[in-house]
Inverse folding.
C-alpha cells in the first residue's frame, strides 16, 4: 500500500466526486490493516481500516468484516 494514496497496493482505485474506492483479496488468516495519515486541511475521515477476510478456525464468518477508526472530527451546527 502506498501511504500517500491510502489504497492497498495493487488494488484498482477509482477517485472522483470526493470519494475513493478500492478492493483487495484476503490471502491469509491475519488482520489486514491500512493507515490513512491526515492531510493538510483535514480532508480524511478514516484513520485506520482493519479487515479480516478469513480465520484459521471454522467460525463460519462470524469474525470476518472490516472496522474503521476515524480521525478526530469537529461538527459545528
Amino acid at each position: 500500500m502506498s501511504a500517500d494514496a491510502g489504497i492497498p497496493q495493487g488494488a484498482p482505485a477509482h477517485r472522483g466526486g470526493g470519494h475513493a474506492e478500492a478492493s483487495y483479496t484476503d490471502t491469509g488468516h491475519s488482520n489486514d490493516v491500512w493507515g490513512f495519515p491526515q492531510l493538510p486541511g483535514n480532508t480524511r475521515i478514516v484513520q485506520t481500516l482493519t479487515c479480516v477476510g478469513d480465520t484459521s478456525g471454522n467460525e463460519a464468518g462470524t469474525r470476518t468484516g472490516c472496522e474503521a477508526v476515524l480521525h478526530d472530527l469537529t461538527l459545528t451546527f
Observations:
- Residues 14-70 form one domain.
- The radius of gyration is 15 Å.
- The chain has one domain: 14-70.
- Strands lie at 14-16, 19-21, 32-35, 46-52, 65-70.
